[in-house]
Amino acid sequence: MQLPPKVTDRAFERLAEIGAGSQGQALRVAVEGGGCSGFQYEIKLDAPSQDDLVLEGHGEKVVVDAVSLPFLANAVVDFTEELIGARFVIENPNATSSCGCGTSFSM
C-alpha cells in the first residue's frame, strides 16, 4: 500500500520560521520530468490548489499535486542544514538512483 509522503517536524518548523502559512503559502513538492537522472524535484513556496494533497503541521502546509503523488509515496520531506547550505530535502524510497545534486532521481 502506498502511503503519502511524511513531513518532519524540522521541515514544518522551518516553514513557520519563514512565515509561509501567514502569507497564505505552502511548500509545494512536485516531481517533473528532466534533470540528470530522468526526474527532478521542484520545491517552492506556492498557494495550495484544489486537487493538492495537503499535509499539515505546526500551522503550516506542505502540498503535493495529484500527478506527483505516486512518485512520492512513502517519501520523507525534511529540512537540513549542512556546510553547503540549508535546504528542504526529499528522502524517497522509490528512487532507484539519484544524482549528487539531490534534486534529480530515477525510478
Describe the structure.
- The chain is mainly beta and 107 residues long.
- 8% of the residues lie in helices and 44% in strands.
- The protein contains 1 helix and 9 strands, in the order βαββββββββ.
- Strand 6 (76-82) and strand 7 form a beta hairpin.
- The relative contact order is 0.27.
Secondary-structure blueprint of this entry?
Blueprint: E1 6-7, H1 9-17, E2 26-33, E3 39-46, E4 53-57, E5 60-64, E6 76-82, E7 85-91, E8 97-98, E9 104-106
Pfam families: Fe-S_biosyn
Domain Core: 6-102
Protein name: Iron-sulfur cluster assembly accessory protein
At a glance:
With 107 residues, the chain is mainly beta.
Structural class: mainly beta
Any idea of the CATH class? Mainly Beta
What is the overall silhouette?
A: globular
Give the CA-CA distance, first to last residue. 17 Å
CATH architecture: Sandwich
Question: CATH-wise, what's the superfamily?
Answer: HesB-like domain
Radius of gyration: 13 Å
Domain count, please report it: 1
What share of the residues does DSSP label as strand, in percent? 35-45%
Give the mean pLDDT. 90
Number of helical segments? 1
Poorly predicted parts: none
Assign the CATH topology. Hypothetical Protein Aq_1857, Chain: A
> Strand arrangement, largest sheet?
4-5-2-3-9-8
Topology, number of strands: 9
Largest sheet: 6 strands, mixed
Work out the helicity level: under 10%
Organism: Shimia litoralis
Protein name: Iron-sulfur cluster assembly accessory protein
InterPro entries: ATAP, ATAP_core_dom, FeS_cluster_insertion_CS, HesB-like_dom_sf
GO molecular function: 2 iron, 2 sulfur cluster binding; 4 iron, 4 sulfur cluster binding; iron ion binding
